[in-house]
Amino acid sequence: MTTQPCALSVRDLTLAHRGRTALIGLNGRFEPGVATAVIGPNGAGKSSLLAALAGQLRPTAGQIERDPRSRIAYLPQQTAFDRSFPVSVHDLVAMGLWPRLGAWRRIDASHRALIDAALAQVGLADAARRPVAELSAGQWQRALFARLLLQDADVILLDEPFNAVDEQTTTDLLALLAQWVAQGRTVIAVLHDLAQVRRHFDQTLILSGQRCRAWGPTAEVLGTVEPSAAVAWLNPSAPWLQAA
User: Is there a contact between 62 and 211 (Cβ–Cβ < 8 Å)?
Assistant: First the structure.
C-alpha cells in the first residue's frame, strides 16, 4: 500500500519581499485533508509564505515541492482587489472557470449552471447581476469563495479571509472550509482570531521574526502561546495573542 503524497512541502524555504527578508529556513509538510492556520505578528512572513506557495513569489533559497497534478487556488487579502472595476457578481465568479476553460472559451449553459450553484452555496443566488461595487464586505467575500468553488482546487490558500467580515458570513464560510477539508483538500489560511483557529484548524504554524516558532497539532501548539514565555519572539500586544 502506497502512502498518500503530501499536498505541499517546504524545505529550508527562505523568502524576500520588496528587498526585505520575509521568511528564513522553513521546513514542513501541509497534508491533504488538513486545515492549517498560519498565525503571528505583522511582518512575520505569513502573506509571503502564501504567495510563494501559490507560485507568485519565488524563493530566494530552499524549495517548495508539490504534486504537479495539484491545482492551487489563492485568495489574497481583500485590499488586493479593486472593487470599483465594472463587473457583475456572476462574471466575477465565472473567473473561477478560467483554469479549466482558458480565457477565450465561451461559457455555455452547463457552465452557467455551475456558476449559479456556487452562488447559491454561498448565499448569493439573488445577487448574480449586481455590480461588485455594490456588495458589502461580507457579500464580496462570499462571491470570492464562490469563485474558489469553481476552481475546484486541491490546495486552497486564504490570506486573512475573515478580516472585516460579519459574523454570519464568517460562520457560513467556515462551514464551507470544513467541507473542503472533508473532501480531502488542503486548506492553509492566515488568521488572527485564535478562537477560530482552535475550533476549525487541525494544525497551526506560528511565524515570528521571519522564522517558524511552532508547527503542529493546534491544541499542542497553542498550548505553548503564553505572553510571559513568548515575549522574546512575539509581539505581546498583538490582538491574536491577547485572545489566547
Answer: no
